[in-house]
Automatic annotation (TrEMBL):
InterPro entries: Aldolase_TIM, Lys_aminomutase/Glu_NH3_mut, rSAM, rSAM_sf
Named cofactor requirement(s): pyridoxal 5'-phosphate; [4Fe-4S] cluster
Keywords per UniProt: 4Fe-4S, Iron, Iron-sulfur, Metal-binding, Pyridoxal phosphate, S-adenosyl-L-methionine
Entry annotated with the keyword Iron: yes
Protein name: Lysine 2,3-aminomutase
Amino acid sequence: MQQHVQIQPAEAFVPPRFTVYQHRQIDKIEALHQLPEHMRFEMKVVASVFPFRVNNFVIEELIDWDKVPNDPVFQLTFPQRGMLDDESYEQMAALHRSNPSTEEVMTLAQEIRLKLNPHPAGQMEKNVPELDGERVEGIQHKYKETVLFFPSQGQYCHSYCTFCFRWAQFVGKATRFNNNDTELLHGYLREHTEVTDLLMTGGDPMVMRTVKLRGYLEKLKEPEFDHIRTIRIGTKSLTFWPYRYLTDPDAQDLLALLKELVDAGKHVSIMAHINHKQELRSPATREAIALIRKTGAQIRTQAPLLNNINTDPNMWAEMWKEQTQLGMIPYYMFIERDTGAKRYFELPLYKTWETFREAYKQISGVSRTVRGPSMSAGPGKVEVSGVSEIAGEKVFVLRFIQARNPDWVQRPFFAKYDETATWLDDLKPAFGEEKFFWEDEYNAM
């Protein structure tokens, strides 16, 4: 029997009608008409390659149009010229000027996308497991304790983030990764009792109707799944469409499902992607946070450090403080991954550490649950713990927060200091070593 959670009466939050704009409707966004024509053309060109989707709540509630194009949420959701290298941009711009067919644009876009490392860190080669000798599409099992599931119904978002490392999920079937087989998910979890955590990911699982989400999760309350202790749901909905928890037709059932899972003994964690404190200013978002907390579920927050969006350490400190005050748990500062439009968003590794450190110094112990800056690289999550000088050599101090081999976790290792390095692959071992301690084992996997 479902236990319904009482939410604030709907009349207290009257939602706008959900309206979404994709690349073919970009000219219909009235707010963009204030921008110069050349900027609107650049957006069309870039949106031909990268996914573009934005809704009216983001446009009307989160973007400060007096500060565009430098507004952080505008940069977060609208395509920018610098996301493409000059050669790719000029190719696509020239095509647009020639009145091309849709097929011509799609063909060139796919050629460009394949150069942008659409599935980084061995996602397709090393993360996809097998069941009865066959690849289990739609599941990734990189770390022993954690399984990621990509439900087919959740492979889009209320709005897309320009930096998203999962951008390839949204631009065509050739690069998409998903599954809608509930029996396959449950069968895999039943077989793998070492798994304690299920992460529902996408896209955004919260775009699904609750009846679909319930189909994946409700069965996990049964005794045969007692080994699944934690259910995580990755989502941007708290800030991009908070009405999912307030006034959507099945909002009550969604909150009830979270409470049922908690009451069944599961740790339920909403993994909220929040990239800038500006996203927290809506009263609807704050109410959604409160309602989720009433179910017993926790909310953990995470975001990458992004050039052109959130490089100010003072902003990070204020955001973590505010998240803690609202009852959320700051969880990760990530480093922009080596895929897609990374050229526009990436920062040197030394700068990521300096920014994290400057922000971390300003917060109290209750907010120091946050970890980072962390690279979700092929061998695991690698934290840049610091920059130091050891035996006369300037080095990066690194460690695994999580790893393909659990024995690698928390073992410090060192890389030569390099001011141009932006990712693990750019680093060389320090102290004359030929390889990092984990390299041979990782390459043999």
